[in-house]
Every structure is written in structure tokens, then in C-alpha cells.
């Protein structure tokens, strides 16, 4: 074989090896997801309250984008303050399908919207009430006794021969049982009413539960309820999932219900889940949502303060604000009332 042919063959081999390396770096998945800043959506474009008032500023929903990390994305995320790595177990439990994950996220978003309506209507002195129907199973913990007995989508209507209408009722009943006890669970699946005996078992250590705590093996249950209001509220949040828009939904609905515009003409974003009592809860990706808000020209960003706990969403938001060089006001809140108080005070002093 002449020298020219050997050189050509060696070049081909090197390119094949290089191509193989590139493909492996691109298509091989690590056990991590990476998240990056998404965008900010103006909520008046997706929420409409019947006979609602117009206003000058805007409330915005901030998002993050998520994908499975290959080796390139993994290394990149280690050196970027705009990216975050999450182990797959932090996102969804082993065995949960993409379809189940999306269903769970949409259920959480639906619950978040209903809670926002209740809190906003109460604050605006409008009528809003729930009719409760039971507890929807959104996720089964692998290896626990509910596996194979309950399924995502089942509606639990009874525990230990006691009717159940919402999540807290179910948890109160279960709190009387200990590890190893058997519990009768009545539920609806499609058009059938069924019953299963389920053993209370200790939660897996990787879930982060306190040692010795246990349950049926149902994670993230959601109360099934029907909302009736004095005014119609239409929300079109497309395919955005999860509960993290609760605070901003509440502010948007409240501002449409009241003649007094609390935005002062500002662009206002933020994050945080919303509870029926108006409490604002911790969410994921707070720092990345600050980057998204900054790039969308936001003036004020609300972040869960978590009563001053270390590494709160508020602290994460401050770090991201410093890294982005934004001039946004980062405002800590523990409740919906905290956000309202800030906005009313700001309007009165502007």
C-alpha cells in the first residue's frame, strides 16, 4: 500500500472516531435534567375576568425550559449561572412515564388556577366557593403498597370507611395509622367504585421524608373540586404545568376584579405557589426566572421569602439579580397580602 493511500485511510479513521465521539456526547443521556431561563408571559393575554377592569401595567408569568442533559449540557451547566442541574429523581420518580409526568404537572397547574381564583375573589370581596368530590391520585411511589392497586387518575372517596372530600381530610385520617397497619381505601376508576386494602409503609429515603414517616404510597395527591364564582374567569395557560404561577395568577385576577390599578403602570413578575389561605410557597428555578424577567423588561419581581429560611427562593433571586446586573426590585413575600401591601404602598408613594 502506497503512502498516499495509508494517509487517506488514516484520515478517514480519525474522522470516524471524531464523529463517534461527537455523537456520543450529543445523544448519550446523563441521569440529569438541565434547566434554562424561559420567558415572561403577560397574564392579561391569558386570563379574562368577566366585566374585569383594564389597567396600564402588566403582571407576568415567568417560565423555565427543561431538557435531558447530555455530557455537553452537563459540563456547560456546571459553569453557568443561568443553568441548573436536577437529578432525574428530583424531577420525577423512577418508573413515571413522560405522559404521567405531564399529567401530574397539568393537574398541579389546574389546582393552582383554582386556588388563585379563590384567594383573589376573597380579597376583592367577591363570591367564590368550591364543591369537593374527593382526592385525585396523580403519582404512585414505586415499591410501596399502593403500586398495582391504585392508578394515576383514580379518585379516592373514602379511607377507613370514612368519606373523603379533599387532601387534608385524607391526610388527617391517615395520620392515625402507623407503619404496618392496613387501611381500606375506596375509590372511583372510570365508571366503577372499587375498594383495596393497602398497607401503610415507610416512605423511601430518597424522597427526603422524615425517618419513620409513612403512607399509602400516593405522592402529590390533588383535591378534585368544582369552582363556582360570581364572575366567570377564563384562563388559557396552554401547556404550562406545575403550581409555580399561583401568586401571579392571583394578582392578575385580583387586579381585574378591582377598579384600583395596583400595577402603577409597571411590569411585574414573580413566582411562588399559592395556598388556599394565601400563603406563598417555594418553587424550583427561582434564579432562572429572574433572568427571564430581566430579559423581558420587568420592573418588580416577587419571590417566596419562606420566612427567612436559608437558601430561600428570595435569596436565590437576589443572587441571580446580581449576576444579571438587573435593576429590578426583588421583593420577598410570604403571603398574597405581602404582595398587595407592597403594591399599594408603592402606588401611594409614587
From TrEMBL:
Domain PDZ: 105-191
Keyword terms of this UniProt record: Hydrolase, Membrane, Protease, Serine protease, Transmembrane, Transmembrane helix
GO-annotated biological processes: protein catabolic process; proteolysis
EC number: 3.4.21.53
InterPro entries, alphabetized: Lon_proteolytic (IPR008269), Lon_Prtase (IPR027065), PDZ (IPR001478), PDZ_sf (IPR036034), Ribosomal_Su5_D2-typ_SF (IPR020568), Ribsml_uS5_D2-typ_fold_subgr (IPR014721)
Domain of life: Bacteria
Thylakoid as UniProt keyword: no
Active site (record annotation): 244, 289
Chain coiled-coil ranges: none
Protein's name according to its UniProt entry: endopeptidase La
Taxonomic source organism: Bacillus selenitireducens (strain ATCC 700615 / DSM 15326 / MLS10)
Amino acid at each position: 500500500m502506497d503512502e498516499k493511500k495509508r494517509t487517506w485511510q488514516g484520515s478517514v479513521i480519525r474522522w470516524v472516531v471524531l464523529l463517534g465521539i461527537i455523537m456520543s456526547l450529543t445523544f448519550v443521556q446523563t441521569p440529569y435534567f438541565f434547566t434554562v431561563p424561559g420567558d415572561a408571559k403577560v397574564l392579561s393575554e391569558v386570563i379574562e375576568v368577566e366585566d374585569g377592569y383594564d389597567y396600564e401595567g402588566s403582571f407576568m408569568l415567568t417560565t423555565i425550559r427543561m431538557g435531558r442533559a447530555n455530557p455537553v449540557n452537563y459540563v456547560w451547566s456546571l459553569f453557568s449561572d443561568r443553568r441548573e442541574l436536577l437529578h432525574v429523581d428530583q424531577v420525577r420518580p423512577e418508573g413515571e412515564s413522560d405522559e404521567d409526568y405531564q399529567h401530574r404537572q397539568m393537574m398541579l397547574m389546574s389546582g393552582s388556577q383554582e386556588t388563585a381564583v379563590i384567594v383573589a375573589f376573597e380579597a376583592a370581596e367577591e363570591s367564590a366557593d368550591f364543591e369537593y368530590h374527593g382526592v385525585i391520585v396523580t403519582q404512585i411511589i414505586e415499591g410501596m403498597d399502593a403500586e398495582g392497586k391504585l392508578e394515576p387518575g383514580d379518585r379516592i372517596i373514602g379511607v377507613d370507611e370514612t368519606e373523603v372530600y379533599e387532601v387534608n381530610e385524607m391526610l388527617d385520617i391517615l395520620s392515625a395509622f402507623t407503619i404496618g397497619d392496613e387501611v381500606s381505601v375506596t375509590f372511583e376508576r372510570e365508571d366503577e367504585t372499587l375498594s383495596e386494602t393497602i398497607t401503610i409503609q415507610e416512605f423511601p429515603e430518597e424522597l427526603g421524608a422524615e425517618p419513620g414517616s409513612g403512607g399509602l404510597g400516593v405522592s402529590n395527591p390533588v383535591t378534585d373540586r368544582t369552582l363556582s364564582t360570581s364572575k366567570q374567569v377564563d384562563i388559557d395557560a396552554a401547556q404550562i404545568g406545575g403550581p409555580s404561577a399561583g401568586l401571579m395568577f392571583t394578582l392578575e385576577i385580583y387586579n381585574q376584579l378591582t377598579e384600583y390599578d395596583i400595577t402603577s403602570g409597571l411590569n411585574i413578575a414573580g413566582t411562588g405557589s399559592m395556598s388556599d389561605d394565601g400563603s406563598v410557597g417555594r418553587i424550583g428555578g427561582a434564579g432562572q426566572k429572574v433572568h427571564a424577567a430581566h430579559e423581558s423588561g420587568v420592573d418588580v419581581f416577587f419571590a417566596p421569602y419562606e420566612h427567612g429560611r436559608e437558601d430561600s427562593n428570595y435569596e436565590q433571586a437576589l443572587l441571580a439579580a446580581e449576576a444579571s446586573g438587573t435593576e429590578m426590585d426583588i421583593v420577598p413575600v410570604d403571603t398574597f397580602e405581602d404582595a398587595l401591601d407592597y403594591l399599594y404602598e408603592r402606588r401611594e408613594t409614587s
